[in-house]
Amino acid sequence: MNVISNNKLKSTIALAALQNVMDPEIGLNIVDLGLVYQIDFDESEKKIYCTMTLTTQFCPMGESITNAAKESLKLGFPEYEPNIKLTFDPPWNHEMISEAGQDFLNEM
Amino acid sequence: MTGPGGNTDATKTTSYKVVLPFYGYASFAFFIATALLFLSISNITTHYFHPHSLALTHIMALGWGTMMILGASHQLVPVLIEGKLFSNKLAFTSFVLAAVGVPLLCYGFYMFDMGWPAKWGGRFVILAIIAYLINVAVSMARSKHENVHAVFVFTATLWLLVTALIGLILVYNFSYPLIRGSSLHYLPLHAHIGVIGWFLLLIMGVGSRLISMFLISKYNKPKRLWLIYGLVNVGLVAFIFNFLYADSKLIQMISILAIATAIILFVNYCYRSYKQRIRKRVDEQMKVSLLSVLMMLIPVVFLIVILVLFFLSDKENTRMIISYGFIIFFGWITAIILGMTFKTLPFIVWNKVYHHLAGKGKTPNPKDLFNNTVFKYMTLIYIFGFLLFIPGILLNSTFILQTAALLLVITAGLYNWNVIKLLMHKPVSK
C-alpha cells in the first residue's frame, strides 16, 4: 500500500522508524501490515501527523500500538512533535499488507 | 479517510481490572471440577441427576465455561460491535454476583439442599446475567455498527437468561409445586437451552470472528452466518415447543436436523477460513481451538445414537447420556477455552504490565509470558484424558475412569500453572 505524504524524503525516514513498531499478535511491523495511511510534516509548527488504522476497531492492543508509533516517530524526529490520528475509513483489510509482509506471513 | 482528530476512542479497550478476575475464577473452577470428577467418579457415572453430577455440571457450565466466556466477551464485545463497552462497573457487578452465586448453587446441588444456598445461588446468577445482558444491549445500541457476530452474542445471552430462569424454577419446584411433574423431567429442556442457546450460539458467533481474525483469513460470508444463526434458533424453538406441547418424533427430528446442519455449516465455515488464511503458520493455541470446532460434531453423533436407542428400546441409555454431557463440557467447551485463553490472556496481561513502555524500549512478546512447553504437555494430557474417559463410561470401568480423571486433574493443574504465571507477571525489560 502506498503511504501518502507531503514530504517524500522525510516520510521514508518516518516509515523506517515505524517499521520498529510490531503488531504483537501477528509479529509483523505496522508499515508492512499496511496500517500506516499518511504521514504529513508541518514545518512551521514542527509537527508530524501520522494517520493510521488498526486491524480491528477496539483492538485490545490498539493503545499500545499507537503509543509505540508515537514514541518511534519521536525517536526518529526528536525536534518534531508527533500526532497519531486513528482512522477506520477505509477499514484495514488483508490487501493492504505489503509484498514483504505477505512473504513474511507465508514463511512464518 | 477521516480528517485531523481521527478516532482515538477506538483504542480504549475494556479495563484489565474487569476482565482478569473472570479468568482467575474460571481457571480455579476448572481445577475444582476436575478434582470433583476424580474424587466422585463412581457417583458421577451412576446417573446424571446424582447430586455430585449436578454440582459438577454446574461448576463446569457456570464456574468454568460461563465465567470464562463472560470475562473474555467483556474484552471482545467492543471488537465485535466496533464500539465501547457501556460500563466497566456493570461488568464488575456481573462478576461479583456470579462469583457469589455459582458456589452457593453448586454447594446446594452437591448436598442436594434445595433450600437457601441453591435458591440464593440461582438468584445471584440470574442477576449476574441480567447485568451482563444490560451491558451488551446498551453497548450494542450505542454502537453505530451492527453485525452478525454481535447478534449471536446478544441472542445467546437471552437464551442464557432463559436457561437460568428455568433452572431457578426447577430448584423452587422442590419446595413449591410450580410446574407439573418432577424437576427431573424438565432437565433436558434446561440443559439443551443452555448448551445450544448459550454455548453453541455464543461460540459460533465469537468463534467465526476470532478464528478468521487470528488466521487473517480472506473468507468472510455474513450471509452464511445468518443462515447458521437462523437454523440454530429455529431448531431450538422447535425443540422447546415439542418438549412442552407436542411430543412429536417428527418435530424432534426436524429440530435436531436444523441444529446439526448449523453445526456442519459452521465447521465448514471454519474450514474455509482456515484454507483461505493469509497467515500460514498456525500456532498451538489455534490448533486446539480448531480441534474444538471438530469436537462439536461428536455430541451430534452421540445425540443421534441416544435417540435411535431410545426409539428402539423405549428406555434411556444412561451411560450414553452421561458420555454426551461429558463430551459437551469436558470436550468441546473445554477445548475451545484451553486454546483461546492463551490467545487472549497474554495480550490482556501484556497491556496491563507493559502498556506504558510501548515503543520506549524492548519488552517481551505477549506469547512469551506463558510457558509454551507446559501448554503443549497440557494439550497432550488433555487429549489422552478426554479420549480415555468416554470408553471408561461406556465400559463402566472404574480404573479407566480414574486414570482419565487424573489426567484431567493434571490438565487443569498445568492450565492453572500457566494462568497464574500470567496473572502474576511482573515487568521484565529485555
Mean pLDDT across every amino acid position of chain B:
89
For CATH, the homologous superfamily of chain A is named as: Fe-S cluster assembly (FSCA)
Our Rg estimate of chain A from Cα atoms comes to: 13 Å
How many distinct domains of chain A? Answer: 1
Rough shape of chain B? globular
Report the sheet with the most strands of chain B, covering strand number, pairing sense and barrel closure: none
Protein chain pair with the most extensive contact, residues per chain: A-B, 43 and 38 residues
Element layout with pairings:
The complex is a heterodimer of chains A (108) and B (430).
Chain A: E1 4-5, H1 8-18, E2 22-23, E3 28-29, E4 36-42, E5 47-52, H2 62-76, E6 81-86, H3 99-107
Parallel strand pairs in A: 1-4, 5-6
Antiparallel strand pairs in A: 2-3, 4-5
Helix pairs in contact in A: 1-2
Chain B: H1 16-39, H2 41-44, H3 51-81, H4 88-111, H5 116-142, H6 148-172, H7 183-215, H8 222-246, H9 249-275, H10 284-295, H11 297-313, H12 318-354, H13 372-395, H14 398-423
Overview of this protein structure:
In chain A, the strands form two sheets. Chain A has a four-stranded mixed β-sheet, covered by helices on one side. By secondary structure, chain A is α/β, with parallel strands linked by helices. Chain A has a single domain, classed as 2-Layer Sandwich (GMP Synthetase, Chain A, domain 3). The two termini of chain A are 21 Å apart. Chain A contains three helices and six strands; from the N terminus they run βαββββαβα. In chain A, helix 1 packs across helix 2. In chain A, strand 4 and strand 5 form a beta hairpin. Chain B has three domains: 130 residues, no CATH class; 132 residues, no CATH class; 120 residues, no CATH class. In chain B, helix 1 packs parallel to helix 4, helix 8 packs antiparallel against helix 9 and helix 13 runs antiparallel to helix 14. The longest helix of chain B is centred in the C-terminal third of the chain and has 37 residues.
